[in-house]
Design brief:
This protein has 352 residues and is mostly helical. The protein is built from twelve helices and no strands. It has a domain of 164 residues.
Length: 352
C-alpha cells in the first residue's frame, strides 16, 4: 500500500513539471534574452565574487561587469566598422575589373562549353548604377510604407537586445540570493541528489563556457594571421568573424569559408588565390579540433555530432538566434541530467 502511495506521489510531481515545460514552450519567444543574460551573468559571476571578497559591494561589481561587456562590444564595433567601410570601398573599386574578367574569361568559357551567350557592357552597367543611385531617395520613400511590419520586427529585436543588460545586472547582483531561494524549495529527500547534479552541471558549463572564450580568442588570432599570410586583403574582418563564430559548430567555419572565397575571387579575379586560403582554413580546423578545443575545453561535454546538429536546430527553432548561441551549453546541462536519469532507470525495478 505504501509503494502505491509513493508511486502516486511521484506521479503527482509529473503534473506540475509537465505544466512548467509547456509554459516554457509557450513563452519561448520571449525567454531567449533572459536565458542569454543568465548565461552571461553565470560567466561573469566569478569576477563579481572575487570583487565581493575584496569588500566591493556586489552592485558595483555587477555594474563593472556590465561596463566591461559593453566596452568589449563597442570596441569590437569600432574596430570592425572602419574595416567594413574600407572593404566596401575596395569592393566597389574592384567591380570594373571584375566585370572585365567576366567579359574576357567567364563569358567566352560559357559560350564555348554551354552555348550561353551573355553580353556584359561594363560602361553601361556603371551608368545604370549611377543613374539609379541618384534616385535612391525616391525609391526609399516609396518603400517606407511597406517597411512598417519589418520596422516593428526590428523594434522588437532592439527591445530584446536592450533587455539583456538590464536582466544581466539584476541577475548578477542577486545571484547568491536567487540560488539560496531556489535551494530552499528543493524537497529535502531530493536535496543531496539535486545538489550533486547541479554541481556536475556547473563543472561542465564552467569548462565549456570559459574554455570556449579562450578558443575563440586563439582561433581569431590564428585566422587573421593565416589569411594575411595567404595574401587576403580582407584577412582582419574575416579572421575575426570566423574566430568569434567557432563556438557555433559548422556555422562559424561555413560563414568564414564563404566570406573568404568570395573575397578571394574578387581580389584575385580567378581561382589562383583559392588554394592558400583553403589551406589556411584546413589547418585551422585541424588545429582547433585536435589541439585547441581538447586542450582548453576538454571532452567533458561528450555530445555526438548528430546530437550537436539536432541541438542547434531545436534551440534555434524554439528561441531563434539566441537559441543557437545557447544550444551547446544548454545541451551539456541536459546531458548531465540524462546521465543521472539513465543510471536511475538502470537501477530501477522496472528495468530489472
Amino acid at each position: 500500500m505504501r509503494d502505491n502511495s509513493a508511486g502516486v506521489s511521484q506521479f503527482f510531481w509529473l503534473i506540475p513539471l509537465a505544466a512548467l515545460l509547456w509554459l516554457l514552450y509557450l513563452l519561448s519567444p520571449i525567454l531567449a534574452p533572459f536565458m542569454f543574460a543568465a548565461i552571461l551573468a553565470y560567466i561573469c559571476n566569478p569576477m563579481v565574487g572575487w570583487l565581493e571578497k575584496k569588500r566591493i559591494p556586489r552592485s558595483i561589481g555587477a555594474v563593472a561587469a556590465l561596463l566591461l561587456l559593453i566596452g568589449a562590444f563597442v570596441g569590437l564595433v569600432l574596430i570592425l566598422a572602419p574595416l567594413v567601410q574600407r572593404e566596401t570601398q575596395l569592393f566597389i573599386g574592384h567591380i570594373p575589373a571584375y566585370l572585365d574578367w567576366l567579359k574576357l574569361h567567364a563569358m567566352p568559357w560559357l559560350q564555348t562549353n554551354f552555348g550561353i551567350d551573355i553580353a556584359i557592357d561594363a560602361d553601361e552597367i556603371k551608368a545604370f548604377l549611377v543613374s539609379h543611385m541618384q534616385n535612391a531617395r525616391d525609391v526609399a520613400a516609396h518603400l517606407l510604407p511597406s517597411l512598417k511590419t519589418g520596422g516593428l520586427a526590428l523594434l522588437g529585436i532592439a527591445a530584446n537586445i536592450l533587455l539583456v543588460p538590464v536582466v544581466f545586472f539584476y541577475v548578477l547582483r542577486d545571484w547568491g540570493g536567487m540560488l539560496a531561494r531556489i535551494e530552499r524549495l528543493i524537497p529535502r529527500r531530493w536535496h543531496a541528489l539535486t545538489t550533486q547534479i547541479v554541481g556536475e552541471i556547473d563543472t561542465v558549463l564552467s569548462e565549456f563556457l570559459r574554455g570556449q572564450i579562450a578558443v575563440m580568442l586563439l582561433m581569431s588570432v590564428y585566422y587573421v594571421i593565416a589569411l594575411h599570410l595567404a595574401g587576403l586583403e580582407f584577412a582582419l574582418p574575416i579572421g575575426l568573424v570566423t574566430g568569434l563564430l567557432v563556438f557555433i559548430p559548422y556555422l562559424g567555419i561555413a560563414v568564414g569559408i564563404v566570406l573568404a572565397l568570395v573575397a578571394t575571387l574578387m581580389q584575385f579575379q580567378g581561382v589562383a588565390g583559392l588554394l592558400p586560403v583553403l589551406i589556411a582554413f584546413g589547418i585551422g580546423q585541424a588545429l582547433e579540433g585536435m589541439a585547441v578545443t581538447p586542450l582548453l575545453v576538454g571532452e567533458r561535454i561528450g555530445l555526438h555530432p548528430v546530437a550537436v546538429i539536432f541541438a542547434l536546430l531545436a534551440f534555434g527553432q524554439l528561441f531563434g538566434f539566441f537559441g543557437v548561441l545557447l544550444a551547446l551549453p544548454a545541451s551539456a546541462a541536459l546531458l548531465v541530467a540524462l546521465r543521472h536519469l539513465r543510471r536511475y532507470y538502470l537501477d530501477s525495478s522496472f528495468y530489472r
